[in-house]
Design a protein that fits this description.
This protein is an alpha+beta fold. It is built from 7 helices and 15 strands. It has helices at 2-5, 25-36, 72-75, 79-85, 163-167, 195-203, 228-234, and strands at residues 16-19, 44-45, 50-54, 63-64, 98-104, 110-113, 122-128, 132-138, 147-153, 158-162, 169-173, 178-179, 208-209, 214-220, 224-225. The strands form 4 sheets. It has a 7-stranded antiparallel beta sheet. A 4-stranded antiparallel beta sheet has the order 6-11-8-9. The longest helix has 12 residues, at 25-36.
């Protein structure tokens, strides 16, 4: 955890961390190829995005119905490193046991939401292929949602949120083609952004266009697990 503290976002409530270049370009490309080559049955198509759930979808929205692990092609380049960071040390299973892969076309997003108590209150998200602004909202805003914090997630970066950032705030992605008003005053992880990202923002007057499909890998520890295959075999 001492290493992780180097990347803590100090202007946000407890706690959030942002690590740029958490994986290499080669690892990123390999992951994208594996994701895109998955059978069509693996994809769940929603109105504003499509997704894959590994090792499977949750049962009744709260139970992981298998003890199968996340496949090696998805886990090997990421999960051991997150374990080394110490983020799962207090979680029920000591590691992430579920990964949700979301694919966003330019202009697509997701409404403000919370992950809830189905999971241990820790989320580790790796971004692939393109960057995007994650907006953070207070739960108490009710109908009028006001953005309190903004985090720019670069390709290959890791964003970790836990504690109050997990339990007391919502997060979402606006359905826009251009992220605007980006600067050291408005982006909470500005100090950790790459020189190239900052220069691109400056050259475009505080704007960044969403140019490509963005894929997010969201790793979490589901609290409840039931091996339904064994239960069915027992019957």
């Amino acid at each position: 955890m001492r290493y992780l503290e180097t990347y803590r976002l100090v202007g946000l409530p407890d706690r959030a961390y942002y690590i740029p270049d958490f994986i290499s370009e080669e690892e990123e490309q390999s992951l994208i190829e594996k994701i895109q080559s998955a059978p069509s049955a693996r994809w769940t198509v929603l109105t504003r995005r499509r997704l894959q759930a590994w090792p499977t979808h949750l049962l009744q929205g709260s139970i992981l119905p298998t003890t199968d692990a996340i496949p090696n092609w998805l886990a090997d380049s990421i999960i051991p490193r997150t374990i080394d960071l110490g983020i799962w040390s207090a979680s029920p299973h000591g590691r992430a046991n579920h990964c949700l892969i979301n694919e966003y076309e330019p202009g697509q997003g997701i409404m403000p939401h919370e992950d809830g108590d189905v999971y241990y209150p820790m989320v580790a998200t790796v971004s692939l292929n393109d960057g995007i602004i994650l907006d953070v909202y207070g739960k108490s805003d009710d109908r009028k949602r006001t953005v309190k914090y903004r985090i720019y997630q670069e390709p290959r970066s890791l964003l970790v949120t836990t504690d109050e950032m997990y339990t007391k705030y919502l997060h979402g992605i606006q359905e826009i083609l251009i992220d605007k008003d980006l600067s050291s005053d408005t982006v909470s992880n500005w100090q950790f952004l790459s020189k190239e990202t900052k220069e691109s923002i400056a050259m475009n007057g505080g704007l960044l266009k969403r140019r490509a499909k963005r894929i997010s890998l969201t790793f979490r520890d589901v609290k409840k697990i039931r091996n339904l295959s064994k239960l069915l075999q027992a019957k």
